[in-house]
Amino acid sequence: MRWLKAGLLVAAGGLGQNLQSPLILNADHIAVNLDPDGVAMQPAFAFEPGGALTAVWVNYRHGQERVLAATVQGARVGRNMQLSPGVGVYYRPVIVSTGPDAAWVFWSRFVGGRWQIAGRRKDRGRWQPMEVLSDPGENALKPSAWVAGSTVWLAWEGDRGAEQSVSVRSWNGREWSPGTVVSEPGIWSFRPVLAANTDGAVWVFWDAYVSGRYGVFGRPVHPVPGPVERISDPAQDALKPAALATPDSGLAVAWLGREDVAGKGILDQWFTAVVALRRDGKWRQETVADLRHSLLAQIEPEVEGLYGYQGRRRDPMLAADGRSLWLLWERRILHAGSGVTAGELCGRRFDGRTWSEPRSLHQGLLDYRIPFAASARGGQLAVAAKDLHSYYSVLDVDLTRGKPFRFGEWPGWRVVRLPLRPDPVRPASAIIEDRRHALYWADLHVHSGLTADAEGEVDELMHFARDRARLDAVVIQENDFIRRPLAAGEYALSVYWAGRFNEPGRFVAIPGFEWTHRPDDNKPNHRTVLYAGEETPIVRHTENNGNFDELCDMVEAAGGVMNTQHETFRWTNRACEGNIEVASGWRVFIRNPAFIHAALSAGARAGFVATSDGHRRNPGTGGGLTGLWLPELTRATVIDALKRRRVYATNGSRIVVEARANGAFMGQDLAAPDGRAQLTLRVAAPRTIARAVLIRDGREALTVPGAGPVLEHVLTDRLPPGDHWYYWRIELEGGSPDFPANLKAAEGHWAWSSPHRVRVQR
């Protein structure tokens, strides 16, 4: 294939904040995306029988998106074709070839408050009008497709107000069959994929959340529908299936295996790629690849830091090579170090009897993707991938070559079953302004795979937060820009999932995003933006020149609230400014308190929160928690508590803190006309309290020694005229280590009450 020797540029968008896509026509690339103003994302491609390739992608520009396609035949690049009917909100197109100059493309679109599956058919080179293929009464997401003979099969996940379910329908060349739910009722089911067995039987596979674990399930849908079969071992989490059949392997399903692990106080996850083969009517599974490289830190002899990655390290892929089967996966070339790094495509070949040794097949790119029904020719497999500037190319990878490697050892980790202990310590109640409140726990800053350099399916993180970390509330929020903008479809999905998992009284999921601006001093002035209501607007700092007042105007109009992030920020005392993040999974910022103390002394009316800032798929166990005092557990009460600063911070331990000044609850302003402030403190901890330290106007004013898991103290402090502030620092015995990067002990030893501000008249 002549054009494959040069490669195929299908995407745009550079490093930093350059959102332009220059047209490149030279010996190294053939440009397909001719729109100079867009950023291309989520590409997919398929080959036609004659060798032509059609690529599809989402093109993002200033909050709006289009679905585009282009076809390459030989060295000739066809014009970009807009498949979506206009600009809108779109997500993850897929394409299947149905013959020469014939294909179907499917994608998710958000319109009228719902997600739909839309599709367009290419017939003899001409694209037919778009069709909506999901039921109008459901939200429908993440299409998958397969071609078996002359029939196109389509699957998707969706909801009709109850659990997520998987549906399928087929197109016989003239019309579509009705959609049919194929997953089991009452069980949340996700991420369907389709494949045909060597005997022509069409199967659909998906992962589902059952009894606190993910598992991979499947069933035949043609020619004779069959029962649902559990394919993965119930003892291990299994999700993100891929499927393919070859003569040597028969029908094969690969998936991501996941186990929770602990070491040196850290909680993390060990990932594997597992493959199950169907032989004699039974599934037999085998762990084929260890994915810990660059996903799990080495902690022996020293703890090393891991950072993000712009590729897909948790997406096993299957490809045919003649009669044989390849398992493919992506990983960083360098195990540790900066998140701005290239990756490699790895694989193992199955010949019907054994798996080959693992090999690195290609290095230097990111986000490796294979075409529909991927099949090598002469040992050459076409793959799409991007470089560090986010330019996607299609290239041939030689499967007959590659560098062998061995899977490494990761001493110090042990497999654990979460949660580690029963429900956390919680006081019965506290009376605040004549109303009974209870204490709830939240992680208010978590990233998913919708952020360019993070990972984790949103539903996966929600389930972890609720069922394994035993959180009461979580905020899964994505960066408005990190090496590329947060796409409109990605943000809409984040908001959708927050709505799906929000259950007042049981578990609250708050929608929002992260403003990631760096002002002229190049220091972060980030904010977590949180919303309680239906209005969830977003503005990206790259699209408003970092106008912070515009951000605040928008958040205040929608009734939202913002918390700072990281060790530097510019506090404004706008009404939407709520709290300072004093600790996260990156570091304990208030350990060196001068910057935060200076903000308080300058008049910042702020409470204290702590978060995981999680990039490790483990919300609630990443080294930062926020205690929320609420009259009831709802989105509205969480946002109100953040606005009123009825919150406090810990670096992971569930330490109960109730602090008052002259009867006013922590976080509040009060007047002390006579200069007297009566301070009361109540602490209950999961282990022995070492001390409580009172911080007044930036100085340690008093230390109260601990003598067990409970501490209560009352004192009267005399203040000179002027403005003053107090907070308490609680320290438990034992300490907590300071590990590098986004790697912290799950349960630290500090807590900080939100400051009181006291005015004494002159």
What does this structure look like?
- The chain is mostly beta strands and 762 residues long.
- Among the domains are: 246-417, no CATH class; 418-760, TIM Barrel (Alpha-Beta Barrel), CATH 3.20.20.
- Helices cover 8% and strands 46% of the residues.
- The chain is built from 6 helices and 51 strands.
- The strands form 8 sheets. Strands 32, 33, 34, 36, 42, 43, 44, 45, 46, 47, 48, 49, 50 and 51 form a 14-stranded mixed beta sheet that branches.
- Strand 23 and strand 24 (324-332) form a beta hairpin.
- The longest helix has 14 residues, at 488-501.
- It starts with a helix and ends with a strand.
- Residues 1-32 have low confidence and may be disordered.
CA-based gyration radius: 27 Å
The percent range for strand residues is over 45%
What structural category characterises the helix and strand content?
Answer: mainly beta
> What percentage of residues falls in helices of 4 or more residues?
under 10%
CATH class of the domain at 418-760: Alpha Beta
CATH architecture of the domain at 418-760: Alpha-Beta Barrel
What is the overall number of helices? 6
What's the number of extended β-strand segments?
51
**CATH T-level fold name of the domain at 418-760:** TIM Barrel
Mean pLDDT: 93
Largest sheet: 14 strands, mixed
- Low-pLDDT windows of residues: 1-32
- CATH superfamily annotation of the domain at 418-760: Metal-dependent hydrolases
What coarse outline follows from CA principal-axis ratios?
Answer: elongated
SSE map:
Layout: H1 2-6, E1 39-47, E2 53-61, E3 64-73, E4 76-77, E5 81-82, E6 90-99, E7 102-111, E8 114-123, E9 126-127, E10 131-132, E11 139-148, E12 151-159, E13 165-171, E14 180-181, E15 188-196, E16 202-210, E17 213-222, E18 229-230, E19 237-246, E20 250-263, E21 266-279, E22 282-290, E23 317-321, E24 324-332, E25 343-350, E26 359-369, E27 375-376, E28 380-386, E29 392-398, E30 403-404, E31 414-415, E32 430-432, E33 435-446, H2 458-468, E34 473-476, E35 478-479, H3 488-501, E36 508-510, E37 512-515, E38 527-530, H4 548-557, E39 561-564, E40 577-583, H5 594-601, E41 607-610, E42 625-630, H6 635-644, E43 647-650, E44 656-661, E45 664-665, E46 669-671, E47 676-696, E48 699-718, E49 722-732, E50 750-753, E51 756-760
Parallel strand pairs: 23-27, 33-34, 34-36, 35-37, 39-40, 40-41, 46-51
Antiparallel strand pairs: 1-2, 2-3, 3-4, 3-5, 6-7, 7-8, 8-9, 8-10, 11-12, 12-13, 13-14, 15-16, 16-17, 17-18, 19-20, 20-21, 20-31, 21-22, 23-24, 24-25, 25-26, 26-28, 26-30, 28-29, 32-33, 33-42, 37-38, 38-39, 42-43, 43-50, 44-45, 44-47, 47-48, 47-49, 49-50, 49-51
